[in-house]
Design brief:
Length: about 425
């Protein structure tokens, strides 16, 4: 038996040598974050599967602040059945609503809720659209311009100035895409879809940059391709996260699971979001019933301190084959994850409403919504809001500040009012 003896080594140096050895063989990790090396650079790998499905309850004010209640003006020119999406410009609110099966309407209100104008209109001329829904609304503060992507009867990506005047159409060179962003003064970009069956060109690309006229400048292909000539069900690509952080555009595509920083000529990996064994299998033929329980993720916001991620779990899948294609519907349970960059703590959270006291506490419903620019907001249909206010005001132990807010809001809103929007900011 060999025996190693250590003599005349100061205890401080001995402990340092042990620590140094362990750092070489076991790179530092913390919480759900593991540090890994890619291309001679250390980046975090976030193990999303380690975050429990059971949610912890926290106050809204733990994450959000600067709350502002905005009842939208109610008049025949701007009636809204439900605010299907929101864009905050810094001086106004843009939202859209469906009008039967006809072209949808995009409406602009100021920050006090007063109706300003309609952006675009139904029709087939310049600045008109036939789309019955809006895929995306973006505000570009440097140019003071608004982009609205209409969809439903063909993609119509229209650019307007701050006064709602039509400027031009942005032509995307790839069919059936979702999401469009201005990369710089001359370039636009759109993500592809890393689907399990490559039926369209979009299914084979990660990202494309192009001019407003639709001229391709740079195309990044997907990394892993599905087997050729396969038949059977394979999941479709989940929606890509394409957002700006600290002045840089970043992209996360499920199926690749790498977060990249976008430059003119390259994509630099800066983090890995590992979904674990319950992530979707985009390159495999699977039994449709096995997609139940699959976890899907989207980055909705990043700050210097945290990542904020929406999580969906497929609770039910009704899928059927139609020729060589598959169709059907999914029922999803939605969750909200926060990941602390410093401590590595990953939490699945639900909220206690300490602002108005009317949000339902549910682990599978996500009351906080997000704009495409990563700005959080709440929206309430008036008739449901009035009922919630009535029930909440009956509580004898209701916080006095909450009671005051609710009583004032109750006077401003009737059952026939337009929706009420609550804007807020992420606490960094």
């Amino acid at each position: 038996m060999n025996t190693m003896k250590i003599r005349n080594v100061p205890i401080g140096l001995f402990l340092y040598l042990i620590l140094l050895s362990s750092c070489k063989t076991n790179p530092a990790g913390y919480g759900v974050i593991e540090n890994i090396r890619i291309n001679e650079t250390i980046i975090p790998k976030i193990h999303l599967e380690q975050i429990a499905d059971s949610a912890s309850t926290i106050k809204l004010s733990e994450i959000f602040g600067d709350f502002r209640i905005i009842p939208l003006e109610t008049s025949k020119e701007c009636l809204i059945s439900y605010p299907s999406g929101l864009c905050l410009t810094g001086h106004s609110i843009l939202t859209w609503t469906q009008v039967g099966m006809g072209p949808c309407r995009v409406l602009e209100f100021d920050l006090n809720g007063k109706f300003i104008r309609e952006i675009g209109r139904g029709g087939k001329g310049p600045g008109e659209h036939v789309g019955y829904c809006v895929e995306e609304m973006c505000w570009f503060p440097d140019k003071e311009e608004i982009l609205v992507s209409f969809s439903g009867m063909g993609d119509e990506n229209q650019l307007f100035d701050k006064n709602g005047s039509f400027l031009r159409t942005i032509n995307v060179p790839v069919e059936l895409t979702q999401g469009i962003k201005r990369f710089n003064d001359t370039l636009w970009m759109t993500p592809g879809s890393i689907a399990g069956t490559t039926q369209y060109r979009r299914d084979s690309i990660r990202l494309i940059q192009y001019t407003a006229e639709g001229k391709e400048i740079k195309v990044w292909p997907r990394i892993v391709y599905p087997p050729s000539n396969q038949t059977g069900y394979s999941p479709n690509g989940w929606r890509t996260s394409l957002y700006k952080h600290k002045g840089h555009w970043q992209i996360y595509t499920p199926g690749d699971d790498t977060l990249y920083r976008i430059s003119l000529d390259r994509l630099d990996p800066i983090a890995i979001f590992n979904p674990g064994p319950k992530g979707p299998r985009y390159n495999e033929i699977v039994d449709p019933s096995r997609v139940v329980g699959t976890h899907l993720y989207k980055v909705v916001k990043e700050t210097d301190a945290r990542w904020f991620i929406e999580k969906w779990i497929i609770a039910k899948a009704d899928l059927y084959q139609f020729g060589s294609s598959w169709s059907g519907s999914f029922n999803m349970n939605r969750f909200f994850l926060t990941i602390d960059k410093k401590s590595g703590e990953g939490r699945n959270v639900r909220f206690t409403d300490d602002f108005l006291g009317i949000l339902p506490e549910s682990a599978s419903q996500l009351p906080v919504q997000w704009t495409e620019q990563g700005e959080p907001f709440l929206s309430f249909i008036a008739v449901e809001l009035k009922e919630s206010i009535r029930k909440t005001l009956l509580k004898e132990d209701l916080d006095p500040e909450i009671r005051t807010r609710l009583e004032q809001l109750d006077k401003q809103v009737t059952d026939d009012s337009n929706p009420v929007i609550i804007t807020m900011q992420v606490i960094k």
